[in-house]
């Protein structure tokens, strides 16, 4: 065979291999990214793992990204996800405003984003947002709080991340009830960033200034457990009622042991699996998704604890 003929034969072979490789890339497993605000909280670990498990059950490869409550790191994750060509993103944001740009970048790249639990302040960046009804859940906690404190006493509120809409929805729902009772006085309100260790530190500091309190409302269960530990350390755990929000395992166990008074049960499995199912439907062609899907929050107390397990109902 002449050199020229060999050259053309090699070129044809290379083009054939390249075509096969492109075909493999296009017909290979599709991928779904799960981006969560933090894996330093068991509730978000459950949310992320449930979303990834549902995606895998639907036939996708799934990878979890931890933003560590850092919007800059979250931005890096989105950049990597877009470059890697993931087919959808199941998203739990770090900041209601700061995360909008990341979601918009994904949308511009043709990658749908389905928000789970945490809202972003945009009505058109995300394909859909599946969110707990935090306000109504906190209203229920507020009503139970007033009953347990007999409508009087001093109390403390521990807020979550100031950039998260859930923080303010829960606070506003709680105060819509509690502020109606003049006998109830809030002596301190501080952020503990939804973090257990920080909540313990903040609570210890508050107790030095306000040693005689009757209740603590916390924007999530991690903070509730941190506040409870601070009360134990101060010898006041049996005198102060602690209220959380989430339905996390340690809070459910503590309610059963009469250590924590109540929590608002969110349903992370519902949110995670709905987001994954929506992503699957989008990839298969559906485009008509509701912008917001509310998920009810249920009050859990020692009176109905037998009906619940961590992160949901029995």
Automatic annotation (TrEMBL):
InterPro entries: Peripla_BP_I, SBP_2_dom
Cited Pfam families: Peripla_BP_4
GO cellular component terms, A-Z: cell envelope
Compartment(s) of residence: Cell envelope
Signal peptide extent: 1-23
Example GO molecular function: carbohydrate binding
Periplasmic binding protein domain ranges (all copies): 32-286
UniProt keyword Transmembrane present: no
Keyword field: Signal
Domain of life: Bacteria
Family: Belongs to the bacterial solute-binding protein 2 family.
Protein name, entry field: Ribose transport system substrate-binding protein
């Amino acid at each position: 065979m002449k050199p020229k003929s060999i050259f053309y034969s090699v070129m044809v072979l290379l083009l054939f291999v390249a075509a096969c490789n492109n075909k493999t890339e296009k017909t290979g497993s599709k991928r779904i990214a799960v981006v969560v605000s933090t894996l330093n909280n068991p509730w978000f670990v459950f949310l992320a793992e449930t979303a990834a498990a549902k995606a895998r059950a639907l036939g996708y490869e799934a990878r979890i990204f931890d933003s560590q409550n850092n919007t800059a790191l979250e931005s890096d994750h989105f950049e990597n996800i877009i470059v890697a060509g993931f087919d959808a993103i199941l998203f739990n944001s770090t900041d209601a405003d700061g995360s909008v740009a990341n979601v918009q970048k994904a949308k511009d790249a043709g990658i749908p984003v389905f928000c789970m639990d945490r809202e972003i302040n945009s009505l058109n960046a995300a394909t859909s947002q599946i969110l707990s009804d935090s306000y109504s859940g906190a209203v229920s906690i507020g009503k139970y709080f007033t009953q347990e404190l007999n409508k009087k006493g001093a109390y403390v509120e521990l807020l979550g991340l100031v950039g998260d809409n859930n923080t303010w929805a829960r606070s506003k729902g709680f105060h819509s009830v509690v502020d109606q009772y003049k006998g109830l006085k809030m002596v301190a309100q501080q952020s503990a960033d939804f973090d257990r260790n920080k909540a313990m530190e903040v609570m210890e500091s508050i107790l030095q200034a306000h040693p005689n309190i009757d209740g603590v409302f916390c924007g999530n269960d991690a903070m509730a457990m941190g506040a409870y530990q601070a009360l134990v350390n101060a010898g006041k755990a049996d005198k102060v009622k602690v209220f959380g929000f989430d339905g996390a395992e340690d809070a459910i166990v503590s309610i059963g042991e009469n250590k924590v008074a109540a929590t608002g049960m969110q349903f992370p499995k519902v949110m995670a699996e709905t987001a994954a199912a929506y992503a699957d439907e989008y990839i298969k062609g559906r485009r008509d998704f509701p912008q917001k899907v509310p998920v009810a929050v249920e009050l859990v107390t020692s009176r109905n604890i037998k009906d619940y397990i961590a992160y949901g109902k029995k």
